Amino acid sequence: MRTAILIVAVLSALAAAALAADAPRLTGPTPALESPVAPPLARPLNTEGRRAMRNYPEQPPVIPHAIEGYQLSLATNRCLTCHRRQYTEASGAPMISVTHYMDRDGQMLADVAPRRYFCTQCHVPQTDAQPLVENTFVDMNDLVATPGSR
User: Fold this and answer.
1) Three-state SS for 147?
2) How many CB atoms lie within 10 A of CB 62?
3) Residue ranges per domain, the chain?
4) What's the CA gap between 99 and 105, in Å, rounded?
5) Whole-angstrom Cα distance, residue 108 to residue 115?
6) Contacts of 111 (CB under 8 A, 6+ apart)
7) How many CA atoms lie within 13 A of 124 on its CB side?
8) Distance CA 3, CA 26 (A)
9) pLDDT 10s digits, 90-149
10) CA distance readout (Å), 51 to 55, 63, 126, 128
11) Which of 26, 63, 100, 137 could form a disulfide with 125 if both were Cys (CB 3.0 to 4.6 A apart)?
12) What's this model's pTM, rounded to 2 decimal places?
């Protein structure tokens, strides 16, 4: 009986070692206690003055300028110094959508709704970064047959 238990224990240990050797690493190529060198940040693209075509209805517009150093906190929002309704004439920036002045029940507010205050939740600056995965997006106009093309 002891021999059988010993054999099962040894086989279990050998099987565990074999499985551990083939198990994929979840932490990447760097050992867990070392810090890998971070890749350089992608350069922001300055497309100011040119509005990018949106890919689908209701897509938030992209930010056409660098926002590095912009303060965006509970106390201040640098985006609103140009894009808030009362500042757009002087700044020349497009006004934020009227939907940003509505609460969740559709009621108009005097100022930007708290749930729309943190711009970078939806709006992103563009960079020259390479995609991590292939993009297979097809524009709606390419999917729908145009009249007279049948």
Assistant:
1) coil
2) 14
3) 70-126
4) 11
5) 13
6) 101
7) 8
8) 37
9) 999 999 999 999 999 999 999 999 999 999 999 988 888 888 888 888 877 778 866 655
10) 12, 9, 12, 17
11) 63
12) 0.61
DSSP class of residue 87 equals: G
Torsion of CA 94, 99, 100, 104, to 10 degrees: -170
Distance CA 16, CA 70 (A): 52
One-letter amino acid of 77: N
Distance CA 110, CA 56 (A): 29
Give the model confidence (pLDDT) of 79-91 as tens digits: 999 999 899 999 9
CATH code assigned to 70-126: 1.10.1130.10
Q: Hey, what amino acid is at 116? A: R
86: region left, alpha or beta (phi > 0 left; psi from -120 to 50 alpha): alpha
